[in-house]
Amino acid sequence: METMNWSEHQDIYTFIEDNWMGSNDYTLSSIIKESYNMEINPETIRNLRRKEGWIKNVSTSVESAHKFEKVVFVGDFHIPFHDYKLFELFIQFIKYFKPDKCYIIGDLLDCYSVSTFNKDPKRMGNLQTELDLAENIIGKIFKLCRDITFLEGNHENRITRHLRKNPELYGLDCLSIASLLRLADKDIKCHSYMNPPLKHHKFQVTHGNIVRKYSGWSAKGAYTKYAGNGIMGHSHRIGSFITRNTQGTWGWFENGCMCFLEAEYLDFTDWTQGWSVAYFTKGELFHLEQVPIIKHKFLFNGRMFSL
């Protein structure tokens, strides 16, 4: 076995001491040969590390993504003002991604005809048409993902508020959002807009009612309101807020939108089309990726998606 008098090669000793964490013994041996014109067996370097206690005592476990629960979050379609080409792209994506679960996180419908705001007669539509289009969209998603949860947004809540003005109709089960969209036919759970965020494990999911000036600020507002980790719609932006305190590291995310990027009540919108996906372990660990769509194109997992 090769022995070394390291006191005679203090420069090489120092080099190994400074670099052993970032390189293996074979790489260090090659660098030393090239830089110092001296051949040192990798085992000699390994023996030095053991002697000096420079040991990487780390157990690394790498698990493939298919071992985790895969979830997709999508929302803010605002039917009939949804971008139908974008929805085609979303269908293309979930055929590839194969999610275990899908959350539709509110404002699937716009409910323009029952809005209390001033309405453009040219945009006035039929509520039944919205419902038919929404049922069609849900059906296409359901063919690819059988576990769907539907969250009402503030626009679906327009129907509830409209019914409250007509107390003789308010409370009829047949006029609830779940009934109007026939969600029970597909065993789709429906979460009321007025309820607190629901939880996927400990990860919170809500449509939300917070809109701040810039992307990410609404996510910060949601963290301030709800704490923990979670995702929200409503802002039509993609953004995130990550923070750390004495209790841990936390993140809230804004989910983007599936509607067109023009609005009659704004000269210009800073909205971003897109959705989010997340991987969940059986514990509290998760990894969330936001998928912004630019001109009906996006990259995911090293692959280009486009129409």
TrEMBL record:
Residues 70-209 form the Calcineurin-like phosphoesterase domain. GO terms for molecular function: hydrolase activity. InterPro entries: Calcineurin-like_PHP, Metallo-depent_PP-like. This is Calcineurin-like phosphoesterase domain-containing protein.
